[in-house]
Every structure is written in structure tokens, then in C-alpha cells.
Fold dTDP-glucose 4,6-dehydratase.
Amino acid sequence: MKTYLVTGGAGFIGSNYIHYMFKKYGDTIHIINVDCLTYAGNLENLKDIEDKENYTFIKADICDGERMIQIFEENDIDRVVHFAAESHVDRSIKNPDVFVKTNVLGTLNMLNAAKNAWELPDGTFKEGKKFLHVSTDEVYGSLTEDGGYFYETTPYAPHSPYSASKASSDMLVKAYMDTYHFPANITNCSNNYGPYQFPEKLIPLIINNALHGKKLPVYGDGKNVRDWLYVEDHAKGIDMVQEKGRLFETYNIGGHNEKQNIEIIHIILDTLQEMLPEGDPRKALVSEDLITYVEDRKGHDRRYAIAPDKIKAEVGWYPETCFAEGIRKTIKWYFEHEDWMDRITSGDYQKYYEDMYSHR
């Protein structure tokens, strides 16, 4: 039985990855979820698997290097999937310090803990051990509106404290691969969307605000372009890189779903109107009149677009979910989990498991 250490597994992408892995591998794997439960970590995301014998949650901070070493000493870890990171650009602009601490120093702690556990006396590493560092397309900077894509060879040019901290963490992983021949891969993904996403992000924010008749804030002219990737497709890509990818390589994971932010908002409004049943009072609230243009974000990148050619050719992965399908699945999930969203927006989710895990 392989043991996976997943950092940040109570967050949006991490929890979706854990669900995907159990759906695919069942009881043949053991997952250890390490999360310090910041505002973006929510154990309700994993409520239906929390009692599985082959699932373990450990409340711990990756910034605590000694604790990370201890976790490796207490468990025979085969794979690390490192999601844990501060990830919201606006928060990084207001408080860059915590992004550097978590994303850079936290990643260094994870690398050191894994190296300490896996390295043999001759400087090689135990067979089958792998570390996957999950990163972002934002490290590449911004593309022009009229063409071009991010490739694995695209020079890094981060423009926000968030993307700079992720670029720094990528460089650390690259350095460990080059210096120590440390068994790792890096994946850089485009914007994810789907179930369990914290409502400060664009798609769940627009869904929730529209259903409550609240303003829909749009930065600048709303024409910034992002490449959208359904989160389960991303989880599948990560698993395939760990199973089939060449060690020491970087793989871009993109959705082939480029859309302007304002276009995303119109699609959500149209889809909500289509999916809400007649007689539902929220149908009257969902309106383009809610769209409100606000001052643009500082250093706002104009366009992101990933070329996933390498992962398609070498690993056989491709994005399976078109945006029209993915947004319907996402909205349907939020319709069916309104209580989840209510606890998020009220803050009650942070109290939900407080006592249960306070001793761990």
C-alpha cells in the first residue's frame, strides 16, 4: 500500500485531489493529509471520508520544519503531493510576508523533510519515492492578448508577491533536483474551478453573490483572460504525472478554456437563469445589472494561457471537461451544498472541527 503525504489537503484543490484518489484507488492507498487549517482550509470538504481507515488527518504547519521531519519519521511516505500555499493575489498585495513564509520557507521544510527521510548513505534516494510540487501559471507573468502560450521553457516573470513566492518555491525544487538529484516533479496549472472552492475566488464569488442579489465586482475593464481548468481534470493530471511522468521534469497542466473575466460572469448569469426552476425567488435576483466595475488590481496580469503539449505527449493527459459542462457541474454542486457556502460566508466552518482536532 502506497502512502501519500498531501499538504494543504483541506483546501480547494487538495481536497478534490484526495476525493479523486480515493475514487480511483479505493483502499489500496493511504493518504495522510497535513493542513494547518488557515481560513482557506475546511475539513468539511472531506467529511465523507474522514472515518476511512486509510485516511489520516494531521493538523500541522509546513512552516514547522521539525514537525515535518517528525511526520516523515513516524510514517513511511512514498509520495508527497505539495499543495499547501497561500494563494490569493489580493491578500499577497496586502501582506506579502506570510506568502514568503508559507510558500518559500514552507516548501524548503518539505524538501528537507523528504530528503532527510529518503536519502541513502551514498547520496542516492530510496526507490519509488517521489515529490510533486504543485505550482501555478502565474509564475510566467503575462501574455499579450493577441497570441502566444506558456510553455515549460517560458522564462519566469512573476508580477505579484503571490506569483513571486511561488516562483521562488519552484526554483527551490529545481535546485534540489539539480543539486541532490532529488526525485521530484513540478506542475504549473491554470486557473482551477469546481466544488469546494473558497468564495473569494472569481467563480464561486460570482455564483454566491448573484444568488443573493449582491454586486458582482469586476476589475478594470473585465477583459483579463484566464485559462480555466476543471479541478478534477487537474487532480487526474497530478496523479498521472506521478505515475507516468519523467522525474526532474516540469509539466504544464492547462484547460484549453481561455475566457475573459467578464465573459465568465455572463456565462454564470446565463447558466444560473437556465438552471434555476421557475418560481425560485432567486431567479429574479440574478441580473446583469449586478455587474459593477471596480478599480483594477495592482500589477494585474492581462492574459494567461497554458500549452499542455508536453503532458499530453509524455503522460497521455488531456483536459476532459469543457467549460460549458464544468460550470454547470460546479453550479449544480453549489446548489446542492448551500449549507456549505453558508458556513463559509458566516465563518462557522472554522469552528466546525475545532474541538475534534485540537489535540492532534
